[in-house]
Amino acid sequence: xxxxxxxxxxxxxxxxxxxxxxxxxxxxxxxxxxxxxxxxxxxxxxxxxxxxxxxxxxxxxxxxxxxxxxxxxxxxxxxxxxxxxxxxxxxxxxxxxxxxxxxxxxxxxxxxxxxxxxxxxxxxxxxxxxxxxxxxxxxxxxxxxxxxxxxxxxxxxxxxxxxxxxxxxxxxxxxxxxxxxxxxxxxxxxxxxxxxxxxxxxxxxxxxxxxxxxxxxxxxxxxxxxxxxxxxxxxxxxxxxxxxxxxxxxxxxxxxxxxxxxxxxxxxxxxxxxxxxxxxxxxxxxxxxxxxxxxxxxxxxxxx
Length: 304
Ligand code: NAD
Fold this sequence. Notes:
Strand order of the largest sheet: 3-2-1-4-5-6
Number of domains: 2
CATH topology of the largest domain: Rossmann fold
Shape: globular
Bound molecules: nicotinamide-adenine-dinucleotide
Number of strands: 9
Largest sheet: 6 strands, parallel
Structural class: alpha/beta
Radius of gyration: 20 Å
């Protein structure tokens, strides 16, 4: 069977790798992004450029979106010049952004009115997973529709789960982000504490990795970001994590669920964003605590 024609909107830290992998797999890709440089880079790999989201929708069978947050997904899909304006009935939108469940459900409802189908398919695995096509993808929506598009998702991800109806993909992602945000704030707090009390950061890393305080995040973020002090390399922006925790808190309010630790973590990241760290990788949260206490958790740091 001929490969489906795909549109891709949102060629940022994640989307650019995902789009490149689709091109490599032989898909005919039409792309759009507000950032002309991002578009140029993907067009140079073989994609076609569309001047608007409606134009993307017009010429393809499947539209993938990888956008920062709820407002952008609403603007791209439902707004003036958006995908729904151009897409024919039967087109499928697969939104891979991390957004609130009620927004996925809203977009799905508006799409259905025009005969357009919708899956929410957020991802986990970061920019490395996007580049290596090893993302975990959690999909909400019709299972048969997912099966029909499995081949496309498998180009970008290694593990693909069907987790329920529309909105459940982003719900599972939200739960993952709560764990991520709480864990990372804990790592930052604990490492600053240990360093302030006089343990060499490398000793902390070596021993914790072999102990019960270890985690996936600890293993990766400590050597690659915290020890190098390079928080501006491609990663997961602190602002995006703060957005995800905000989604969880909104959802908790609507569902009357107390989220004590998520609330605390949200305040940490909000303070960090207010101090100008929002565009850096989320592990820059440690800079906030380091400044407060007057230590730096870096490899080879000679402590006073
Ligand atoms: P990003 O900000 O790097 O990229 C978003 C892209 O969308 C940008 O290129 C931007 O120009 C484009 N865009 C924004 N508004 C647009 C519009 N109206 N029309 C067209 N293009 C528009 O974000 P990212 O890091 O790639 O993340 C995308 C989504 O994936 C977010 O929801 C994020 O939470 C989630 N996510 C990110 C990571 C990560 O490690 N970066 C990991 C998992 C999930």
